Structures are given as structure tokens and as C-alpha cells.
Amino acid sequence: MRDTRYLISMLKPECGADVIRLCSQQDWPRVIDAAVRHKVLPLLASRAVEAGFASVLPASFAEVLSESSATASSPELTLSLVHHRNTIRISDLDAQRVELQELLHSNGFPTVALKGAALLERKIWPNPAARRMTDIDLLVVDPAHAVPANDAILDFGYRMVRPDEVDSDSIDHDDHQEPALLRDDRHGSVEIHSHLLPRFARHALTREAAVRGISSEAEGSRLAMADVTLHVIAHARLADRALIRADLSLNSVFDVGYLLTSEPELAVTLSRRQLPRDVRRAVNVHWAAVESIFGVSTGMTTISARWWWRWTLWLADRPRLHSLYRDLVMVPLFLDRDRLSIRDGRDLRGWDLARSRVSHFVRRAKTAVEDAGGAA
Q: What is the value of pTM for the model shown?
């Protein structure tokens, strides 16, 4: 059994329930591990509840379960607990989004929701509790408001995330580009963004184009649906060369699939945009993934994008090979002169640059072999 493909068959909106009901007890641990690896365990739990395999737990258990860190002994109970806890988590994150946007607007710092927060705001997912979400991302309409907006949230009872907290269950360090703020009595964290995207992907969607027409005085402003979609894809497939690393990004595939369901003209709208080549390729691969999982035709994908999606799925079920492949395609990036100069604290050129590249390459090669050996 290829775990990733089997997992995807369970997650498909149309036929997933039948696959879930037929899964053997011996296969469930591997499927759950694959769901954790690809960051879609809440979605699998939601599908299991819809299929009748897992249960919606009684509300009377809410307080006990929210405090419990115990693991369940059966896949049915494991998925029931995941669904229950994520339902509470998502409800609280959305409540925080509303509270913070109202707070910031009243202080003269209007914001628009990004990524998962934008999808929650629009009720894009049929079941919000099916989406994995670690934080609330808000974009200030005026970039000059980023620092005072953070200060206003700190005054509201939040605090900065400590370095030792980024590996905890509530904070996902891979998802953070801005300073993260949290409250100890609430779920997740919040980030205030002055830019739509990190520096490496800003050409995909400029802040100026996205916020054009959004008034600094208007309450409840939102990014256009096409901009939300492009923002999701850019984060999933342009982050640190994620597309050529063939990362699966299943969570964002379902984001875009549900966005397309909500607005069927989305693919056509994005096809009319003038986009850089790497951005267009990222969009096409995402459409290919959505077509494969949702069983729809956007009419906008390409043969090469479909092949790339198949290659991504093939690698996803071969973690050791994928680990080696990821390290290989990152070679040009981690041998970049500017990056090595910053790491070394001086401007490297000539023999100094060559020695630094050889030294860093040897260290990375050792790491790659260790990672491949430790991959599941």
C-alpha cells in the first residue's frame, strides 16, 4: 500500500467515506502517520466522522479532553479526539481573529485576514474544523501600522512567543515569518504582516495591487478571492523553492479546491493575470493537484503540471529518496555567495568563497545522508 495515495483516496470529497470504512486496523497507524507528515490529520479526522468511523464526542467531555495529552489506543478514538480538539481550536482562532480585527480597527490600524484566517472569514471549507491551522495572519492596510498594531495586541494581553515554544504542539515554527504573539489562555498565535509574502516570493503578488481599493477607514475589508488564492499558492509552492523540492502541500490543495468550489471562475481569472514564469508554474501545478483530488477540470492546467504532480506523489511515498532529492535541489541555494557571506560575517570572494562552498557542501552532504537514513 502506498500510504500517501491511500490517504488522498480517503480525503477525496466524493468517495473518501467508502475507503475509510474499508481500511483495516493494521493499515490505520500508517495512514495516520502519513496524515501527520502531510499536515492533514484534522481533515482525515473530519472525513472519518463524516463516514461514521469516528464520532463527534459529547460536549460534556470538552473540558477534560482539552486538558488531556493522552493518546488514544484505537484509530476510531484517535480520530475522534483529533476532530474534537481541532473543532475547539478553530472556533477559538476564528473568535480571536474577529476580536483582534475589531480591536485594531478601533485603534486606527485596519487589517485584512490572510491564509487560513481569510478562509475562515469567508467560510470556504464546508467544515472549518477539518482544516489544520496554527495561527492567525493579519495584514495591516498601511505598512506603517505594523509595529503599533503589534503593540496594541501586546497591550490586549498577548505576549511574544519564546524560542523554547516553537517546537511545542501549539506553535509550528515552519509557518512563521513575522514575530508571533499569543495568549496563554487561548489557542495558537497571531502574526501581523506588513507584506503579503516573504521577500523571496513578493513578485508573485504585490502588496500594492492586492490592497488597491481597500480603504483604511472601511471596516470588514477583504482581499479579492483571486488574491487570496494566489497568496495561498505562493506560500505553498514558492516558499524557499518548495515547488522544485516537490513538497506535497496537501492542506493548500484543499484550500484552493474549496476556493474553486466557492468561485468557479477563479481559474479563468488567474489565467488572465500576467504572472512571472515560476508563479505561473506554481499555479498550474496547484490546478493539477486540485483536478486530481476533486475530480474536476479547470481547463487551465498543463500536461507538464500534471506530470509534476504525479512526480510529487511518487516521491511522497518514498521519504528517503525525497529527503535526498530535496537536499540536491537546494544546492544552488545554500551555496549562494550572499548567503554564505552573511553566515561567515564577511564578504566572501575568490579562494575564500571556494573554501566556504566546499566546507558548507561537505557539512550539508553529511546532513543529507543522516536525514535520508532517519526518514521513515
A: 0.85
